[in-house]
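@channel sequence for tomorrow's demo:
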Amino acid sequence: MAAKNLEEALKAAGDPVEMLRNSQIGAYIYPVVPPEYTNWRDEQRAWRETVVLCDQSHHMAEMMVEGPDAVKLLSKLSVNSFAGFVPDKAKQMVAVSHDGYVIGDGILFYLAENQFNFVGREPIVNWIQFNAETGGYDVKVSRDDRSPGNPNGKAVNRRHYRYQLQGPNAWALLEKLNGAPIPQIKFFNMGTFKIGGKTIRGLRHGMAGAPGLEFWGPYEERDEVRNAILEAGKEFGLAQLGSRSYSSITLESGWIPSPLPAVYTGDKMRPYREWLGPARYEVAGSLGGSFVSGNIEDYYVRPEEIGYGHFVKFDHDFIGREALEALGGKAQRKKVTFAWNNEDVAKVLGSVTAGPGKGFKYIETPLSNYASSMYDRIEMDGKVVGFSMFGGTSYNEGAMLSLGVVDSNIEIGDVLTLVWGEENGGTRKTTVERHVQTTIRVKVAPVPYAREAREEYAGSWRVRHG
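structure tokens (generated this afternoon):
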């Protein structure tokens, strides 16, 4: 009998790690948007040199939360403070389990009094819905799930289109579209401007180190707004980002989008596991990479470990507060960038001609992930000191990069070892061909990644010994 929820699926599998590492969900794709408009290399280059149009309309879920208890609910689910949080502002909302491990994060838009819209990956949308429906809150929630990876010829419809203009020419393009100067909008604040006579609402934030806006409107207006942007953008060197290049932008900006949601253990989380249906992300998702543990909690991360420590505020009651307070803000691990050794990467890529089962795990470009959540083992002298969680190629930096966490004693510039590929020829995931495991040297670099930081240590690919 098929499992009806996550709790039943875990009992049937017996081992959550085994269940997730052999998931048959296939590749995690960014739907609808073409893979490339030109080529991913030039598209990456454009966000540094000119301006890019990102179509974010399809790969994220939305959850509208409205009602008298909207603030009460969302504050209860957020490590973030709500002090001073008012309409026309947004925040990167981080939610944790009762034991203080990260469930997920995303952008929470404060649209109007008692009206919020959360935009992000599915795990935190599920968490909001569960608590809204079971917690006795006076709220109404309405979700709009990400577009299907394979619509099978059916029309795709969303509540909103969601675009972003980013890059050094973004503001000049926005002002041309607006027909007048746009007052500078503060970081993570919202404002309005015009495109083609339509009043558009946008959020100021950055993904490529230059001013830009994320903006949205009714989905049926998406083509009209896009066409106006494309026409006005010709003189500014506008490039559209395909799904391949868009998904790699975080390698340079330093956001880890897909830690394993910490929902698979804990008695207090059992009602949630019983609520999560069999088609949900947490049931069908996959776990990949060379890091293997018999304890699913070894894949969990704390907010501080992935750069969210400054979001944690104890000025309000929230799920997981007691666990995080007990830690005292101390993290055993920290977020870093790993710069992969070019010679070792070339060795892996070259092995594709060795024949079935004889080569190393193929490295996809520009994004090398082959599971919903990636965990590749990082070693020093054969001892695990962290894991790589999200990797790919930066054409701008001329490097393979990945984001992950290491023990707090690891230093910038240390050269460590990344174990690439899975054990015993690979798991049964459909994204994993039979292969041989190997190692790749990686140099520890800051987050966000900077060329200057890499070149400072360019003289040596020494391996640090403890």
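heads up for whoever presents: The first helix runs from residue 6 to 13.
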